[in-house]
Input
Amino acid sequence: RTMSGGRGAYYKAKYGGRGRGRDRDDNSHHRQRDDRDGDRDRNRGASVGSSQELSDILRRIDGRQYPCYKDLLGAWNYDNKFTLFVDHVQGDAYASPSKFRVQVKHSVSRIPPRYFGNKTCEVATRDFFARRFAEAVSQAGGDVRQGSGGWHGAKGGDMTVDKPSQQILERSAVMLNEEYIEARFTIGLPAQGRSVMGKMAHKSLIDMLPLYVHKALVFTSIDSKALDDHVQCVEDAEYARDQLSSLGLIAFVANHSILPRSSGASDTPMRGSEAVKFMSPPSLEVQLSLPHRGTVKGMGIARGVTLITGGGFHGKSTLLNAIEHGVYNHIPGDGREMVVAVKDAVKIRAEDGRYVMGVDISPFINNLPYDKSTTEFSSRDASGSTSQAANIQEALESGSRTLILDEDTCATNFMIRDERMQLLVSNDREPIRPLISRVRSMASKGVSCILVIGGCGEFFDVADRVITMDNFLPLDVTTKAKEISAQFLTQEKQRVLEEQASWNFPDVTPRIVDSVLPRDMGKVAVRNKSLVQMGDLELDLSCVEQIADISQTRAIADALRLLQSHISKNGRTTVASLLDIYDSQISRMGLDALSPDRLVGNYALPRRYEIAAALNRLRSAMFRQ
Output
């Protein structure tokens, strides 16, 4: 029923104050800003209130209807110690949590300029402060969510900071520049039913937040030695990675590294006597000179074709896993701090059922039944072999020149065809040209491969070096492997090997991107590290094994929107050029480039190769040559 006085009187009676969602004094109305997109930075150019005003509002709206929380939108100065920005307030207690930022000027934070003097140092410093901020909240119980008593019970109240994992990645949780340090977080603003719990919100924003800021974002309050160790660890790893190319290496594993993890469900290092320390074979040992650690020795893996062999459960896949994640830096104490790989290393595997469009897989697969073309191969349900061929070609298209493969996750018929099978099924009846017949020609084109091979000695014929893992320790068995290979070498076999090595592996055919996202995409939700829901469409990233953090997946989801917006109207935008645009935007604007209309605090930076992997698996994406 409509009350006398119209809609304004109705909302005044329903919510209190001067209309829907408003209840503030005369000095605060100028902070209310347009909420059309529901998630915009509302504070650029807006006037700033005081923390006392914010406190008064929280007390005043206690017990009122949930939309009264909208009165918090704006910027609030806490006695010139820091400024709180309320960027977005959720519509109800069950909606996505509200978004906040705190900025602490360096006149208060006292963070020395040396910590943001270059990109490497800045990223490491931001990571360190993000960890400290998340720990401060967690130790005080600020991340505990209320949820009792059903609809009428208390709910919300939890404060969430995007806490980093074992990897040190560029993140948006903490930003740092010459003026201030900024921490971003969310709070599920507390409610009882549909009513504001102002006292609980007051505790979070007025009582506890200043303690978190002082404990975690002020230089004099943190362990400066731990910060230095954190930064120096990253600087050494980056310096080591940058030396690989000049040394002819694609990976380096330092002596005394701890490669095994505590369990299959954890990325933390194994502890105790079972944690075998890595030691390089003398023949493969190289040394690097680093700015902080000085001289570091370890195993260098040179360009070319490298096999990692050994018995089951002796550490083959453990070593490979450490190398594939060596594209990222790791925290002190992780055990893999000095395991580094070239930045373009990409893990390759078979992927039954994946979407493939317009990929030239003819270097590996040709002469399909019914004359189906493989120079522009498409499938909505690719087999193990065709998906693995596509994965290789797509990685090369994105710019990778280092491929990492584990036989456990590869298609057997894509990897090899032995002589007995060739006698039964002649080459003219077999469309697959296995990887073993192509790795030498790929190497001659500058594409290196590291392969875990435990069950097929024929790869000895094409390997530059062979490493055997014995109880998690590597042995250089290249000489012995070549001797074994020679025992089985015939004139015909020698002829075939020379023919395969001299075959000209073709350049990847560039593909043009016509579209990325569906027109009626609907809501986008990141379900976990491996799954993005886009309306009715699912993007399955479970086989993109170098995604290390769910925050990278969030960034990937929004990066796809960015790519869509940069597809040229002339219809000539290639996959490679889109990835170049992504790199350029990130270099120029940082992670905020992924969400120009809002500020996001839970991104972690994905490489262009993971962006390409997501693009290629997105079933709405359309490609042509």
